[in-house]
């Protein structure tokens, strides 16, 4: 291995994995944190005595308004988690790794300190703290995804592994909940998370690049502490990496495809990829599935409370079960990456024999992954719609598998379908646009709690129909065929679709 050795790269990989598990996606353990907030009487003033059918008090409180307040906080935070991915992706592309990570550390530390020092009287500050926490976390993820470039043919596996770790970090709030039940205060737990920022800073300067990790790696590539003393060498390596990137087999340059064509070069700009049907269909597919996941997480505490008829111990037990299953996302996600890597190698090997484009063969490897993800999400939505409390264990399992496949597959698909120099912006844009759709979760929550009387059947039916939308950009997806105009049985029939300049 040229450049810096394997031990440094493995250290970068493992510490990045730890960072994603411990910090990046903690928002999605929201259901555990809500349980603690309710115990601390956050927004309890919104609860009113529940009047029975005859208008008499039943002795229980109607806390629908409290649940709505928590749902609104999660809706805003999850929206920012995705929407801010575009500007943060631009920051990462424009100002590179060190600047992006320092911004992430600032947001994350500020958020944890706010949560540590607020109380029930100042609970409205959660509207500020939770979005800041998610923005810092998503920047941690974006800067770590490039580590896959250090490991060549295992790139998709590592990208999906990190996305799985992002999902698994929701277990952090479960740990905080369990510690709280053992007598350790919420303040102490979040102060500890704030102190961990020292570790983030150290890792930023010792184990991460100043700029970007190129793909494919140029000879003698170095990063981390050693690169700070060799700025001229780094500039030379960066120039070489850009040249190699243009010559990459996965993303052939415009000159290779249509020599001397200025129009073709202009057509392959960033915005040409954004307005392609490939990007549009992928956005629709991601948005619908993500909306259902966010709605489920944001309303789970309320759902469990209703199904358990207000039994707090039972609600706590199922909350713990859900958070524990979330931790296993880091074990589920790599299987999706392994599937894509194996199929990619297989299709590219066949493509070389027939003279077909490697990029077209690489795209074919994404089809089984996207289809399997859709099937898993369909099963999850079906189980979540059935109001049987023990069945929710199955729902939890399907939810964590489908979610880890969803985000890992999304990142891997973008690396396969579009040039690497636009990855940060495209990844950020698709997440930002899907975030706008995710804002529907709050009115849907109001609809379920109000007119639908806590019955999500009709909502889940509509969303399941949306999940059946095509997971790719082709207008003729069918069994036995692959998207983008490439037949599996006849790879030599590849043709560039007229509607998609990104193909």
TrEMBL record:
Its main location: membrane. The chain crosses the membrane at residues 12-37, 70-92, 99-118, 124-147, 159-180, 279-297, 317-339, 360-387, 393-414, 426-448. It is a multi-pass membrane protein. Keywords: Membrane, Transmembrane, Transmembrane helix. This is Solute carrier family 43 member 3 isoform X1. It is found in: Membrane. Residues 239-258 have a biased composition (Basic and acidic residues). It comes from the Eukaryota. One of its GO terms (molecular function) is transmembrane transporter activity. Residues 239-260 are annotated as: Disordered. GO terms for cellular component: membrane. It holds the Pfam family MFS_1.
